[in-house]
Amino acid sequence: GEAELNTPPFVVFVAGGPGCGKGTQCTKLREEFNLIHLSTGDLMRAEVASGSSLGGEIEKHMASGSLVPDEIVLKLLKNAMVKNQDTNRFLLDGFPRSVEQAQQFERDIAEVSFLLYLEASHDTMKQRIQGRAQSNPGRVDDNDETVRKRLEVFDSQTMPLVNYYGPIGKLRKANAEKSPEVVYAECKRFFSCRFL
Ligand code: B4P
Fold it and tell me: Are 18 and 125 in contact (CB under 8 A)?
């Protein structure tokens, strides 16, 4: 059968709109706190790059700015977690994208410790993505039209996570408008006492 996690892992979800800087913050957190950083966007780009038929299906969703279907995301994510179970402490970057994804994950894979939400305005996110598109072209989803769609999907599908985790005490918010270093100072407070 399918491989499973043998021990309950430590899991933090990192959510925020497109281009808010999730990847940037997770890279810093993983180094300081010895966490396995899994970006669902990166997992899917790797599947696309492999040239598999599943990758072909994933690319259609990414290029349009819509969410990749839950069963695909959950399967790739679980595989990656099982491969890293010797460490078993995870920062999930860009996951979940909806309350449904969160519920499925917590039901089928593991309980989450908290959701780290990086808050930034649409203008800030658009500017950052435009900056990335210039310095680093080649992402199928960094053009203006797809970015508009990704922002819409974020507002309608991902934002409800804040009201889902807030009332049960599992929401941690950071203001993502500032420089990467200033944003990081806010983020790391939520981890600091945990593994010392
Ligand atoms: P992602 O790969 O998650 O793309 P993102 O939201 O643009 O990334 P991020 O917020 O990490 O931005 P970054 O740090 O790079 O998703 C892409 C697509 O994959 C989705 O649209 C969807 O189709 C699919 N997908 C992913 N996860 C899914 C899921 N769970 N379910 C279904 N579908 C899913 O920062 C962006 C830029 O800003 C960089 O150039 C960076 O240098 C700059 N920057 C970062 N922080 C800054 C700061 N503080 N100040 C100034 N610039 C900053």
Answer: yes
Residue whose CA lies nearest to ligand 1 atom number 36: 19
Residue 161 Cα to ligand 1 middle (Å)? 17
DSSP 140-185: TT-SHHHHHHHHHHIIIIITHHHHHHGGGT-EEEEE-SS-HHHHHH
The 10s digit of each residue's pLDDT in 130-173 is 999 999 998 999 999 999 999 999 999 999 999 999 999 999 99
Max intra-chain CA distance, the chain: 47
Tokens for 77? 């994510």
Which residue's C-alpha comes closest to atom 35 of ligand 1? 21
Residue 165's φ and ψ, nearest 5 degrees, are -90, -25
Ligand 1: residue whose CA is nearest its atom 1: 41
Where do the domains of the chain lie, and which CATH numbers do they carry? 10-188 (3.40.50.300)
For residue 66, what are the contacts with CB-CB under 8 A and spacing of at least 6? 149, 153
**Has the ipTM of the complex gone over 0.95?**
no
